[in-house]
Amino acid sequence: MAKNYLQAGEFVTVLAPAALASGDPVLVGAIFGVVQFDADSGDEVELARRGIFDLPKTTGQAWTAGVKVYWDATNSLVTTTASGNTLIGAATAARVAGDTTGTVLLDGTIR
Questions:
Q1: Is 24 exposed, middle or buried (0-12, 13-18, 19+ CB in 10 A)?
Q2: What is the pLDDT of residues 32-42, one digit of tens each?
Q3: Is 2 among the domain residues?
Q4: Residues 87, 70: contact at Cβ < 8 Å?
């Protein structure tokens, strides 16, 4: 292993941009992840950048498995609308328009 290797990057520690609770999805700059423990604004917090999570979704949208999903930072929801939003992964299961959560595969890619 290279002498400058630090970690795998599945989890990353950042400063919380606001008060966050375990399980909250958050975008910090270009890094999207799911909060692993509660943190106050400005505290260090660990984000999971990869994995499959149930996340809050935009109602009124039906999802199919494999559809690309994006983070709508304005509304703090996952959406299938690309314009103005950040690509975070893909849905792993179909959801009907009325569902408030969706199952999302985060691949950890910075976009």
A1: buried
A2: 999 999 999 99
A3: no
A4: yes
Q: What is the pLDDT of residues 62-105, one digit of tens each?
A: 999 999 999 999 999 999 999 999 999 999 999 999 999 999 99
Task: Give the DSSP letter string of 70-109.
Answer: EEETTTTEEES--TTSEEEEEESS-B-TT-SEEEEEEE--
What is residue 30's DSSP assignment?
A: T
Asked whether residue 1 is domain-assigned, the answer is: no
- Domain count of the chain? 1
Domain, as residue range, for 64: 11-107
Q: Which candidate, 14, 22, 34, 46, places its Cα nearest to that of 78?
A: 34
In the block, residue with structure tokens 């109602």: 59
Residue 109 has pLDDT above 90, yes or no: no
- Percent of the chain at pLDDT above 90? 90
**pTM, two decimal places:** 0.93
